[in-house]
Amino acid sequence: MTIGRNLSLIERIMRALLALTLSLNLTGANIAPLGKYTVAERRHWAFQPRSNPVVPGFESPADQAFATTPIDAFVLARLKKAELAPSPTAAKTILVRRLYFDLTGLPPSPEQVDAFLRDRRPDAWQRLVDQLLENPHYGERWAQHWLDVVRFAETDGFEYDTHRTEAYRYRDYVVRAFQNDKPYDRFLLEQLAGDEVAPQEQETLIASGFNRLGPLRKNAGNQEVASSRNEVLTEMTNAVGAAFLGVTLGCARCHDHKFDPIRQSDYYRMQAYFAGTLEHDFPLSSREERSAWEETIKPIDARIKKMQGEMAKADGPRKEELEKEILKLESSKPAPPPTLYSVKTDLEKRSPIHLLTRGEYTAKGDSVGMRPMGVLLPDGAAEITAVDKPRTKLAEWINSKDNPLTARVMVNRIWQYHFGQGIVVTPNDFGRMGGRPSHPELLDYLANEFVQSGYSVKHMHRLILNTNTWKQASDTISAKAAEKDPDNRLLWKFSRRRLSAEELRDAVLSVSGSLNPKMGGPSIMIPIERELVDALYKPTQWQVHPDPAEHRRRSIYLIAKRNLHLPMMEVFDAPDGLVSCPRRETSTHAPQALELLNGRFSNEQAEVLAAKLNKLSGGKPERMVEQAYRLLAGRRPSPKERQVGIEFARQVGAKEFALGMLNLNAFLYVN
Question: What are the residue ranges spanned by the domains of the chain?
Answer without folding.
Answer: 1-31+185-284+338-403, 67-134+404-498, 588-671
